[in-house]
Structure prediction request, 168 residues.
Amino acid sequence: MFKKQNVIQYINGENAANISQRIIIPLKQQELQHYFVQDYKKPEQISLDLYDTPNYHWTILLVNNIINPFHNWPLSNETLVEVSKNKYNDIYATHHYLTADGYIVDELTTNDYDTNLLPIPPDVLIVSNIDYEIELNNKKRDIVVIKPKFVKNFVNKYEKIQESLRLI
Prediction:
């Protein structure tokens, strides 16, 4: 993708891809499909699986509005545990409480539960730090991709717009 980006020049004279530039190409719902990112799968691997080339990995990032894959792409389960251990003193400690309807319990009530001033009702779920991080990471696993029969047309449109921007 970065090879396709316009170049900007830093103050020190070095050139870099202008990754802040975003080209929006409208896609119809029927041109997209849901995809669940398995553990350790990278955009290049998904591109190879879907499009028979790793070179369309950037389309996956683009349609999911992922600017920084190091922060916005799902971590492997193993890496997630390690990152969580660095983030929390105790990954199994309570992060928050959920009601049966899926609502987060307010902070005052949470303090009462944590200090044993109130018993935790049976319909309230304790969510640990690691459970919370797994939930956030799993949300990143549910992405959309361009259906294989539409990806070449998308890439052609993108390249035409990119070329016209270079002429400006």
Remarks:
- The mean pLDDT is 87.
- The beta strands are 7-9, 15-17, 32-36, 94-98, 125-128, 142-146.
- Residues 81 and 130 are 7 Å apart (CA to CA).
- The radius of gyration is 22 Å.
